[in-house]
Design a protein that fits this description.
Layout (H helix, E strand, L loop, with lengths): L1 H13 L6 H8 L3 E5 L4 E3 L7 E7 L2 E6 L5 E7 L4 E2 L2 H6 L6 E4 L3 E7 H10 L1 H27 L2 H11 L3 H4 L2 H8 L3 H6 L1
Antiparallel strand pairs: 1-8, 2-7, 3-6, 3-8, 4-5, 4-7
Helix pairs in contact: 4-5
């Protein structure tokens, strides 16, 4: 995973900021590779959360299970996406969101403390993480507005147009949970 992981992360960061090779090597030294198996839990409700995950391969999901045991998927995380329970990570509280593997996955872990250290030392890294956070906020707002304004058929088409690879990677019951509908409703579409 070594050089490939390094190349994937370097290309991802380079889309936003420019780092010298030495700066990138320093940044990369804070990331820890880890492999997970399909179905494996990464974050469970109640856990202390100290890291975020950069997906190299595979697909993860972040989700919440309500008091009626209904699953709501907040995010699918595919290659070059980031995932964690960000409320728990930033506020140093217990996890309320779960993260697990839809497929086998290879990720890079970055601790909150290391991210903060890198941001304080390198302005370009701070800019990258601010840009990434802003993009995440915009995506969450867009999804929320779509929920308020569009029927499930439109939301389903929008999801598959934006992320066509999801259709083959993610079971339909999970796409239904992401859209907030039953598997049967999704089948009728």
């Amino acid at each position: 995973m070594g050089s490939t992981a390094k190349e994937v992360l370097k290309a991802h960061i380079a889309k936003t900021v420019t780092l010298t090779d030495e700066q990138f090597d320093y940044v990369f030294s804070f990331f820890k590779p880890q492999s997970f198996k399909k179905g494996q839990a990464i974050i469970s409700e109640g856990d202390a959360v100290t890291t975020e995950y950069f997906v190299l391969s595979g697909c993860l999901k972040s989700f919440f299970i309500n008091d009626d045991l209904k699953m709501f998927i907040l995010q699918f995380a595919m290659p070059t996406w980031w995932v964690s329970d960000y409320s728990a990570l930033y506020n140093q509280t217990k996890a309320t969101v779960n993260v697990d593997c839809i497929t086998d996955a290879e990720v890079l872990l970055l601790s909150n403390a290391d991210r903060e250290k890198l941001c304080s030392e390198l302005h370009a890294v701070e800019h990258f993480f601010r840009w990434r956070t802003n993009r995440g906020y915009v995506a969450a707002q867009k999804r929320l507005l779509s929920f308020m304004n569009n029927d499930v058929k439109h939301r389903y088409e929008e999801l598959l147009n934006q992320y066509p690879e999801l259709y083959n990677m993610v079971p339909k019951k999970l796409i239904a949970a992401y859209l907030g509908v039953s598997r049967e409703t999704l089948s009728r579409l």
